[in-house]
Amino acid sequence: SETREDYDDKQVVSEIMARCFIPTRITTSSWEGFRFVGHEIRITEAMDCYGAVVWPSALVLCYFLETNAKQYNMVDKNVIEIGAGTGLVSIVASLLGAHVTATDLPELLGNLQYNISRNTKTKCKHLPQVKELSWGVALDKNFPKSSNNFDYILAADVVYAHPFLEELLVTFDHLCKETTTILWVMRFRLEKENKFVDRFKELFDLEEISSFPSLNIKLYKAVRKSRRSA
Fold first, then answer.
1. Which of 32, 100, 154, 199 has the fewest CB atoms lying closer than 10 Å?
2. Carries keyword Amino-acid biosynthesis (predicted)?
């Protein structure tokens, strides 16, 4: 007996997954195709590291941004993506009109820059920037608080079983102003994730805005806890 929620989940998930297509002709470099914001986006994946594969969480976030463009209007907004990986989310935010800074670890920047350039040139109002951001490292130097003026922080699947959760929290905290909205999609795999959510809630008001049980994925919106309650 399927509940209404199960049905909705399956419907939306199949709609999200239908945004991917595999090239019909096999070429020397492996790439995947995605359809968002009226564009065909080609992503080259680097198979040698975690951050270079498109995870379902990224698709969920892209789909959300496109289908909620009125409520979460990206036009001319300052947006930073942390753990941008292959760049899909940053590309979609750019196609939606945002000023995007896509960030990740140094070893991922080559592939990230390649994907972003290839999919945004001549298609976007603002060309995205690619910057190195190792969580918790040299934040004041590379992202001085005085010039952090992000309307949105985007994060897809940045919490998996790695040892840098405290640094991730510090990074969110550093980049986030009173007026910043965090849109964060997370796949729950292990107990660690729940612990991280608890720590996160100490600093931010967290609201679950979408859930996809069949993918184990939740989409959150977060804002800094108001000064009054602090």
1. 199
2. no
Q: Is 48 exposed, middle or buried (0-12, 13-18, 19+ CB in 10 A)?
A: exposed
Q: Sheet with 39-44: list strands edge to edge.
A: 20-21, 31-36, 39-44
Indicate the residue type of 194: N
With CA atoms as reference, report the closest residue to 61 among 219, 230, 229, 171.
219
Residue length of the chain = 230
Q: Hey, is 149 helix, strand or coil?
A: coil
For 204-216, the pLDDT digits (tens) are 999 999 999 888 8
Instruction: Please state the pTM of the whole predicted model.
Output: 0.89
DSSP bridge pairs for 183: 154, 221
Question: What would the DSSP string read from start to end of 160-188?
Answer: SS-S-HHHHHHHHHHH--TT-EEEEEEE-
Domain assignment present for residue 212? The answer is yes
Number of domains the chain contains? 1
Could you report the per-residue pLDDT of 134-191, keeping only the tens digit for each?
989 999 999 999 989 999 999 998 766 566 688 889 999 999 999 999 999 988 776 6
CATH number, domain with residue 172: 3.40.50.150
Range of the domain at 63: 4-224
Residue 229 lies in a domain: no
Residues 59 and 217 sit within 8 Å (Cβ to Cβ): no
